Please model this.
Amino acid sequence: MRRRLSGLLTLLLIGIGCSPAAPPASVAGPERATTGAATAAQADTDYRQRVIEGARAEGQVNAALQSAWTPEGLRQLEDAIEREYGVRIKINFTPVQIYPQRLAELTAELAAGLTPSFDLHQTATASALRMLDRDLLEPVNWAALLPQGTPPAIVKADNRFLVVYTDHIGLMYDPTVISEAEVPRSIKDLSNPRWRSKVMLAQYADIYTAWITMLGREQTLAALRAAVQNGAITDIYANEYTRFAAKEYPMAVITSTYYLTALKRGIPAAFASLDFAYNTDHYVAIPRRAAHPNAAKLLAAVLVGPEGQRIAEEHLGISNRYYEGSVENRLEQAALAAGFPSFTWWESAEVKALVLSAEGEELSREIDRIFKGG
Model:
C-alpha cells in the first residue's frame, strides 16, 4: 500500500512538471497606453478634417459678435481661418447688441423648429446660463480644432462655450472731469448729490445679481433706487459708450471692454471697480441646428486662439484674462492689488442658482421697475 501511494505521488509530480507553462499575466503597459493615445489622436485628426471639409462646402458663417468689429478686422479673421485650416470662409457679421434679446430669438427659433438666424452666438452671464438650462447649444470637440497656444481654460460648460474675451464690470469715468481721488468706489456712492445727472447705469438687470450676492438684496436695490432718484439714466452698453465719448455723461457703469476701446480711440477714460473686482467671461457658442455649423466652429476656434485674440485686441481693444500678460489680466491683478474682493460670475454657484430661480426672475423685474422710476 505504501509503495502504491509512493508511485502515485511520483506520477503526479511528473505530470505537474510536464504541464505547459501558464501564460504570463496581462499587463497594461506603455505599449497599450501609447496605442490608446494614438487612436484618440487619429480620431481628433479625422474630426478636424471632417469639420474643415464641411466648412469648405458651407463657405460662409452668420455670426452675431461684438458690435465693434470692423470690415478690416473681419477680413483679417477670414485670412487667419484660411492660414490655420486651409479654407476660405465669408463672415456675415451682425452686431450682437443685447444678449437677452438674442437669447429670446434663438429660444423661439429652436422651439418652432426653425433654422437659427445665427450659426455663432456671442453671449455671457445670465443669458449663457439660460442657454445651457434650455439645452440650446451643440457640444463640440474643441480640442481637435483649437489653434496651438490656446489656453485650455478657455473651454467651458462641457465643450459648449469658448471664452472669446473677458471684462470687468465697473465704472468708466472721464479723468478730465473726475479725479481718481474722488471717483466713486461703490454703487452706494452713485447717489451722492455731487454726481446728480452725471451717471449712466447699464440697463441689464441680470448683471446686478452679482451685487445682490455680494452686498445683499436690500442694500443693492436701495443703492440702485437712490442712483436713479439722483438722475442716473439707464442704457445698453453700446449707447453708454457713445454718450460717454460725446461727453454727455462723465461716468458709466459699463464693462471694461468699452473702456479699452475708448483708450484705443484716444478718448479720455479711466476705470474703477465698484465694491468688488467683477470678472465676466463672454462666450461664443454653436446653436443646435445651425445652417453652417462647421464654418462656425472654425471661426469660433480662431477667435479664441492667439491670432484671433491679437486681431481683436488690435481692432477692438478687447482682451482675455486667460492669456497671461494680456490687458484684461493686468486689469484684474490691479483690482486685486487695490484690495477689492474678487467675484467671478462663472465660478459663483450662488449667483447661478439665483439667476435660474423664481426669486432671481422677480429680482430682475424689480430692478427693471426701479430703472423705470418705480
